Amino acid sequence: MSNAIISLQDVNKWYGQFHVLRNINLEVAPGERIVVCGPSGSGKSTMIRCINRLEEHQKGHIIVDGTELTNDLKHIETIRKDVGMVFQHFNLFPHLTVLENLTLGPMWVLKKPRAEAEATAMKYLERVRIPEQAAKFPGQLSGGQQQRVAIARSLCMNPKIMLFDEPTSALDPEMVKEVLDVMVSLAQESGMTMICVTHEMGFARKVANRVIFMDRGEIIEQNSPDEFFDNPQNDRTKLFLSQIL
Ligand code: ADP
Ligand code: MG
């Protein structure tokens, strides 16, 4: 793929002796939406954390929007500007209001004036359907609302790529839908490149161009969502799907 916005080429990573990523090859086209699934411990988080250098790979190449991730801090900074990340546990600053959580990065990293940062923040809070929560602290919000703040916070940095690491798995069941709904409309309206680790099959079928299945540090299988869920090929994929469905 010559126009890939994310390219992983024979990526390998070890934690000490433990070989956590094995010869990962993945090319993501601009605007493509990928869902990553697989058993716990298979390396899903590690793989997506390597894409914005929260983890370092030891072998192979990772190229994001034309910049290769090396130890060069300039490259890491460049890539972090392009890549937003949403975590399982929200990671909001508890001592800042919702609005302050959203304006911190734009003001201090992107050097935006406060008024502009606040206007952008309110625009994205509306997009995730909680503008009325702007003055509250994260601890005063439900889990689903906090995760929507986290999504809005990433969007305020105007990333080209969004990475989601199990964004709904820490939520009570009744809050999963409100977060998935926001992610679906983001996917459908923004045309942004997205990689999302999730086992939410409905979400995958609705928005993913491709589903990738990982097991023991390898990409075992990938396909369109319908083919992947309805007609899995590999025995490990079949076993995994029989456990989550
Ligand atoms: P997943 O997201 O698919 O559940 P992870 O990428 O979190 O998997 O972890 C893959 C494997 O690497 C697991 O066996 C985990 O215990 C191990 N691991 C993750 N982070 C570290 C770390 N910082 N140090 C050592 N081992 C780790
Ligand atoms: Mg994980």
Automatic annotation (TrEMBL):
InterPro entries: AAA+_ATPase (IPR003593), ABC_ATPase_HisP-typ (IPR030679), ABC_transporter-like_ATP-bd (IPR003439), ABC_transporter-like_CS (IPR017871), MetN_ABC_transporter-like (IPR050086), P-loop_NTPase (IPR027417)
Pfam families with a match to the protein in the record: ABC_tran (PF00005)
Keywords for the protein's UniProt record, in alphabetical order: ATP-binding, Cell membrane, Membrane, Nucleotide-binding, Transport
Gene Ontology MF term list: ABC-type amino acid transporter activity; ATP binding; ATP hydrolysis activity
Kinase recorded as keyword: no
Limits of the ABC transporter domain: 6-241
Gene3D superfamilies: P-loop containing nucleotide triphosphate hydrolases
Keyword ATP-binding attributed: yes
Highest taxon listed in the record's lineage: Bacteria
Record family assignment: Belongs to the ABC transporter superfamily.
Name of the protein in its database record: Glutamine transport ATP-binding protein GlnQ
